[in-house]
Protein: DUF3221 domain-containing protein
Amino acid sequence: MNKRIVRLLMAFGIVGLSGCGQLSGAGEPDITGYVTEVEDGRILVVNPEAGKNDLGTVEEETYDAAWAGLSEDNIRVGQLVEVWFRGGTNESYPVQATAGRIKVITPSAPGNAELTEAQAIEAAIKEFEARMMIPTMAAVTGVSFDVKRDEWLVELKEAGGSEETEQEILIRDTAF
Structure:
């Protein structure tokens, strides 16, 4: 009888501890957004929807952003992803965390486009950074494909910047 109780308690303990230190959940992702940088085993993910900065004195719009460390190398600039964090986060801006799970969201290709949405965004980010002439954190605020003109329109803004940084960048739909 005592052995049975001990086994039962051990089983409950193992089940209870198995959830500790794991992903923040199979529920909602911690961040959803476009990958705007890939470097040194981590990705920068920026949510395309702005939230107001709650610091009070800053009137600029900011975008949720996170540097997420990862062990895989198949994530590319321009991809739309959902990221679940594992463990704690460093509450800087952007947040720094370890990615426990990453789901790539692949939008359907519009019309007869040669480029994928991710390729068009990657090209637009390169152009945006060249225009800004200083290192910046880009937020993709819109992306569309014009079938008649055979070009992508990518709307970008500095993630922590002012309205003056908004730019519309046209990318010809030509495979790299």
User: Anything to note?
Assistant: The chain is about 20% helix and 40% strand. Residues 28 and 84 are 8 Å apart (CA to CA). The beta strands are 31-39, 42-52, 61-69, 80-90, 95-105, 138-146, 151-158, 167-172. Helices lie at 2-18, 117-132.
